[in-house]
Amino acid sequence: MNSGNRARSTLKVAGGLAGALALGVFLGVVAVDAGAVADLEAQVSTSKGDLQRQEEASKSERQRHETAIAVAEGATADAQGIATAAEDSLATAQAGLARRAAALDKRTTAVAGAERAVLKREKAVSVTEDEIDASMIEPGTYLVPSEVEAGRYRTVDDISDCYMSQDKGSNIVNNLAEEAGRPVFTVTSAPGTTFTIQPECGAVQKID
User: CB atoms < 10 A from the CB of 73, how many?
Assistant: First the structure.
């Protein structure tokens, strides 16, 4: 073999070796890349799982918060309803108290008016009683007209026996003898005479 052929053979071998080397390098790089991709995919899968779990936990927490808010809102609504009912009851009670107070004031005014009327009647009765007392004459003998005015006199009580007379000295001007009832005796306007009421007659009262 000449030198030219040997050189060409050497080049072929070198070229083959270089190609093999390049292929090996490529395959190694590809293998390395495939492993890295697998690792990345595993990390991504793990991250996705973590993210999903976090989302589920967040959703569960949000649901708990929403439930708590709903319960709180329900309790607030119940409390507001109770407060409204209490306010209504209070308003009703206050209105009732106002009506009772008005009725009490009215009754108080009526009682005060009745008391004034009673006092007025008592005063009138007292005046009448005083007038009656002033017009009543107890049994005895009285001068006409200085002690007893002329007029008609009637016994205050029913009697079973009564004698009254108007006398001038020993002369009887007028007399009355009754056995029952409330007799009326007339005293005439006769100066110097006396009007005598016997004890059995009791008190007499001037009626006109």
Answer: 10
Q: E strands, the chain, where?
A: 136-137, 140-144, 151-155, 162-168, 171-178, 184-187, 193-197, 204-206
Answer for the pair 148, 137: CB distance below 8 angstroms, yes or no. Answer: yes
Give tens-digit pLDDT for 41-51.
Answer: 888 888 888 88
**pTM, to two decimals:** 0.41
What are the strands, taking DSSP E only, across 81-181? 136-137, 140-144, 151-155, 162-168, 171-178
Measured CA to CA in angstroms, residue 21 lies from 15, 27, 35, 84, 190 at distances of 10, 10, 21, 92, 184
Tens digit of each residue's pLDDT (9 = 90 or more) over 106-138: 888 889 888 888 877 876 665 555 556 678 999
Q: How many CB atoms lie within 10 A of CB 139?
A: 15
- E strands of 103-161, at which residues? 136-137, 140-144, 151-155
Question: Across residues 24-50, what is the average pLDDT?
Answer: 75
pLDDT tens track for 153-205:
999 999 988 999 999 999 999 999 887 899 999 999 999 999 999 999 999 99
Q: How many CB atoms lie within 10 A of CB 44?
A: 10
Angstrom distance (rounded) from CA 48 to CA 56 = 12
| Torsional sign, CA 51, 52, 54, 55 | positive
C-beta separation of 174 from 186 below 8 A: yes
